[in-house]
Amino acid sequence: MNWNAISFDWNHVRAFLATVEEGSLSAAARATGQTQPTLGRQVAALEEAIGVTLFERVGRSLTLTTSGAQLVDHVRAMGEAANRISLAASGQSQSIEGLVRISASDVLSAYQLPPVIAQLRDRAPGIEVEVVSSNAISDLLRRDADIALRHIRPEQPELIARKLADSDAYLYATPDYLARVGNPKVVDDLKAANFIGYGAPDEMLPHFVAMGLPLTRDNIRYHSDSGVVGWHMVRQGLGIGVMSEHVAALTPDIVRVMPGLPPVSFPTWLVSHRELITSSRIRLVFDHLAKMLG
Amino acid sequence: MNWNAISFDWNHVRAFLATVEEGSLSAAARATGQTQPTLGRQVAALEEAIGVTLFERVGRSLTLTTSGAQLVDHVRAMGEAANRISLAASGQSQSIEGLVRISASDVLSAYQLPPVIAQLRDRAPGIEVEVVSSNAISDLLRRDADIALRHIRPEQPELIARKLADSDAYLYATPDYLARVGNPKVVDDLKAANFIGYGAPDEMLPHFVAMGLPLTRDNIRYHSDSGVVGWHMVRQGLGIGVMSEHVAALTPDIVRVMPGLPPVSFPTWLVSHRELITSSRIRLVFDHLAKMLG
DNA sequence: TCCAATTCATGCATTTATGTATAGGTGATC
DNA sequence: GATCACCTATACATAAATGCATGAATTGGA
């Protein structure tokens, strides 16, 4: 190995990568927990060391030079290798004490996870649990969480997934609200009802249509990014919402809309990283979640 | 990107890599131009940062732990990415001044390269040339050289190779030595002659046999790793040696053995790295070598 | 068994890098 | 066009890493 060729400061490469990814020295400083002068000096030092001008200093912002752009792919590869080192190192941990981060949708996090974690506390009191309540998908690859609960099967080969039991979802509302819309008996009776959307309304509508409901965009008057907020709208009598029967069973004063309507079945996947699952701490939480939710 | 996961000191990863590759902290320090205490502290800091004991300190030497061994692949990948950054950065250099390192066999380096470099000096006086005279093959991938002259076609896809003219090699000796072995006229007359081997004798013998010479291992009494040293043995009348006609033509007082014997033809390849050849300085030297030696 | 060579660990002075505070400049918005 | 928000660059005091010198321990060979 010719060590001289790679004798530039590797931390400066990370500074360059962070600056490219975050868009500015200041943003990179915020993201990495360093300061803007430090990042600026590190990038300048890297330019000096490898003899390539990476950024064009024009006005308030930096733009990549063409030379710099041709290095970015290799720099990203270096960052990904660093990430794999971090993953593998975490996977080597055989300590039964320490942090495990679980990512799940906010509904799962709020209604189903707490009792499961309570049982885990009795079984492994040394484990610290952080619930990353997020409806975004890309948590595991970004290393924001160690274990994720998802409703779609992950495709990445570096992830391992275990399918839990399928759940059934039904339409729910308050008796009060149902009376207000005339106690619907057939799907056509729902044409005048309000439906609660989780996420963007355009995203939710196809699911309702797939259930055989004759709805249009106008039926979704109230919506929220948060499933918990949406469910609270249902509980306040603002409209009809979809919910898994497990969560609905935990909610008093809520009734099923048209009990004859067939349910929507959806899967739940327990996901982790191939290299992380070798950690006995993460493995223990993974198996506990599989047993309790499966 | 979760920057927190890769917030360990990346230079410490290089220290770990160097220690694994070189076998000890002291050897790594010598190889990387740092000191042994620095390397030791860096590896210890990395262990602390990622929570993995990398080395077992037993006696005077360190041995990888199983945990450490499982990180090595990822660490190597990071080093290779760093190497590609270095390559790409060198390739971005559009400066016509600076160092270009040429790797070639010692015979080529000593007899054929100097006049070519003299012409290059007149054409591009700002270019500094280092001739890495080595019979080892793996120079370009180790980044010991920017351009290499080889007699076998390189197979790696990241290398680019241009074939130069084929050369003819003949047997040579001093008239004095030929008289001593009875001025051989047919190949069977060579059975009692001494042949000079370049490299290991077992490696050289098959080439002589392929030329149709009825030789055994006993015919190779004098040999050297260095082709230049071997050729000087021929010039001193120690035996018969193979040499390209170009080099032999530069050597006075040497005659061809049995002029009727057909030559051995061998190719010469000019090789560089795909990412390096984009450097105008390296490109210029590459093209000059191709023109002068082709 | 002893000696020489080589290894890793530690104390200390010096060099180097970092953060804080601040100045200077640019682009978007009202 | 003035203001605001945001960016980068620089000076200086402090914190951190490095190299040197040295010590302690182990291996291999005479």
Describe what you observe in this structure.
In chain A, 42% of the residues lie in helices and 20% in strands. With 294 residues, chain A is an alpha/beta fold. The first copy, chain A, has three domains: 89 residues, Orthogonal Bundle (Arc Repressor Mutant, subunit A), CATH 1.10.10; 94 residues, Periplasmic binding protein-like II (D-Maltodextrin-Binding Protein, domain 2, 3-Layer(aba) Sandwich); 99 residues, D-Maltodextrin-Binding Protein, domain 2 (3-Layer(aba) Sandwich). In chain A, the strands form four sheets. Chain A has a five-stranded mixed β-sheet, with helices on one face. In chain A, strands 7, 10, 11 and 12 form a four-stranded antiparallel β-sheet that branches. In chain A, a hairpin with a 2-residue loop joins strand 1 and strand 2. The N and C termini of chain A lie far apart (50 Å). The mean pLDDT of chain A is 90. The interface between A and B is large, with 44 and 45 residues. Chain A binds a DNA duplex (30 and 30 nucleotides) through helix 2 and helix 3.
The end-to-end distance of chain A, rounded to whole angstroms, is 50 Å
Radius of gyration of chain A: 25 Å
What characterizes the major β-sheet of chain A?
Answer: 5 strands, mixed
Strand content of chain A: 15-25%
The CATH superfamily of the largest domain in chain A appears as Periplasmic binding protein-like II
> Which series of helices and strands of chain A comes N to C?
HHHEEHEHEEEEHEHEHEHEEEH
Specify the CATH class of the largest domain in chain A.
Alpha Beta
What's the number of structural domains of chain A? 3
What is the CATH topology descriptor of the largest domain in chain A? D-Maltodextrin-Binding Protein, domain 2
